[in-house]
């Protein structure tokens, strides 16, 4: 076991909240308190009765408001998280040929799921180096264009745009939804799990779906394509429109997601949430650019994520040691993504993180590095 240097960060320097993980991310204390206050009449009750269905309805409608959804769009949801949704999409949204943009761990996983599906044609995979954002290429043979809004592993934010082709646009928004601006009309399926920007727990997938996407779900469901019922998006859609899920959800997850949605909408909507992340990003990237030992991993400022920052450290400063010292001082989950294999820190700037805590974090890193040198 590596010995952690005995470095103490003064209490006056530390952030008020030391949670900087990129998923699961910080859960707002106010939301937890609200859940505790209503727990006796909400937790442990039937998800097919009004007590829960009212909360699901409020969440679905609140998300339509937050995303400024065009007429006809609906919020669908089901258990299993975004990883399960990848498999569901191979059954219920992709007819034959998908185009996949890959530039990191999570976008590559969806591409692999599509490539392995025996009932689909080979996907068109457009791959960029980690830290870059490859662009779609319109192709008449493609019926689904798939890419992330925010690649959590690398800190790259893709623009949500629609290609010239006729295929559906499927956007994996797990770490971007609720924290990054976008035009909902440019996506047919904008799907995510709520354990990141939405300051909730995992195990649930949520998808903003266009009328075209719902028509595709209906069309595929009417064919003889076999699919497991838990991955059947027609089943999920039919249940969602009744403000319920096919099987029992984690009620706390739904409630916490609703509390985040209400907090954002009550304070001005997505611009409010994204504005908080913008402020944190300006602080963190500005700090890294001003240091001789830190550099933003994503070189192109236009695609630097404002919700997940990846910061390379000079080889003379071991990032794992810095992360370990921070953790020993109550500052959590700042390590880089393991499979990227860089001397790097990865820091959540999601809206629930106070911008003032991001500033405090930069002072703490400076303090640790100065002590190590």
Describe the structure.
The protein has 373 residues and is an alpha/beta fold. It folds into two domains: 11-26 and 270-372, Aspartate Aminotransferase, domain 1 (Alpha-Beta Complex), CATH 3.90.1150; 30-266, Aspartate Aminotransferase, domain 2 (3-Layer(aba) Sandwich). 37% of the residues lie in helices and 14% in strands. It is built from ten helices and twelve strands. Strands 1-9-8-7-4-2-3 form a seven-stranded mixed beta sheet, sandwiched between helices. The chain has a three-stranded antiparallel beta sheet with strand order 10-11-12. Helix 1 crosses helix 7 (251-266), helix 2 (50-66) crosses helix 7 and helix 8 runs parallel beside helix 10. The longest helix has 21 residues, at 270-290. The chain is globular and about 65 Å long. It starts with 28 loop residues before the first helix and ends with a helix.
